[in-house]
Amino acid sequence: MKILVCISQVPDTSTKIILKNNNTSVNSDGVTYVINPYDEWYALIRAIELKESGIATQVHLVTVDRFDVGPVIRKALALGGDEAIRIDADNDDPYETANYIAEYAAEVGYDLILCGKESIDYNNGTTGAMLAELLGVDYIGFATGIQVEANTAVVTREIEGGEETDVCNLPVVISCQKGVAEARIPNMRGIMAARTRPLKVVVPSKITAVTKILTYELPPAKAGIKLVSPDNMDELVELLHAETKVI
Fold it and tell me: Which of 56, 139, 161, 228 lies at a CB distance of 3.0 to 4.6 Å from 132, suitable for a disulfide?
């Protein structure tokens, strides 16, 4: 069984974001990029676990980006990926991204495609579902547990107020979240081996994007803290009414 894991690189949460070009783009200078946590901690690690248990034979990694993703994709290789593919294209539009991955996945053929439930930069969780639709296979989202038995996937997923268990035939696309696997760090042997692994670059057919980012806006700066004496409850009530819109 071959597994494809969709990897995206996102700014580290500690990175200061600076806008440019009249707030129409993000200045990438000095930005530290990491693997999207949902892709790394859950989708990738679960794929590696399936390989370690003998269920899967290969774990391939795919990312869509025009920029240098070397450090990010090599960390994924160090964790246990077998082959890395960078599709040389913009990834601002999830439909466009899904098309590029679908084109490659259909050509190679995979039994299981895993991705994180969303990316932490745009909180976009639509790529996996669109990928499944483009490939004509089933999609299960927000998985907290994945088991594979013969040609069948048994998936536990969160629903409002509880959880459900779904059973479907392979191939299938599954988006993963907390509970699917336990995060791990690469060992030295994996890091050294990943340095020499080739990174396959694929130039895809051009797809027309269906969405476009017009502008960015940074969140408002944090306001100062107001301290209220415990003996002055009237002032506290007044502040709650005036500044937090409490009725």
Answer: 139
Tell me whether residue 121 is exposed, middle or buried, using C-beta atoms within 10 angstroms of its C-beta: 0 to 12, 13 to 18, 19 or more.
middle
Distance from the Cα of residue 210 to its chain's centroid: 20
What are the distances in angstroms from CA 74 to CA 2, 18, 62, 116, 214?
19, 27, 12, 18, 32
CA-to-CA dists, residue 181 to 38, 49, 211, 237, angstroms: 10, 8, 33, 46
The answer to whether the CB of 171 falls within 8 A of the CB of 137 is: yes
Tens-digit pLDDT profile for residues 45-67: 999 999 999 999 999 999 999 87
Q: Looking at this protein, which amino acid is placed at residue 116?
A: G
Asked if 212 and 96 count as a contact pair (C-beta separation under 8 A), the reply is: no
CA distances from 69 to 110, 120, 244 (A): 23, 17, 43
Q: How far is CA 23 from its chain centroid? A: 25
The two beta strands, 19-20 and 152-159, are unpaired
User: Residue 30: phi, psi to the nearest 5?
Assistant: 80, 0
CA angle 3, 131, 10 (to 5 degrees): 80
Give me the domains of the chain, ranges plus CATH numbers.
2-217 (3.40.50.620)
Per DSSP bridges, beta strands 162-169 and 152-159 are antiparallel
Q: What are 145's strand-pairing partners? A: 156
Supply the DSSP string of 88-108, one letter for each residue.
-S--SSHHHHHHHHHHHHHHH
- For 209-228, write each residue's pLDDT tens digit: 888 888 988 888 777 777 88
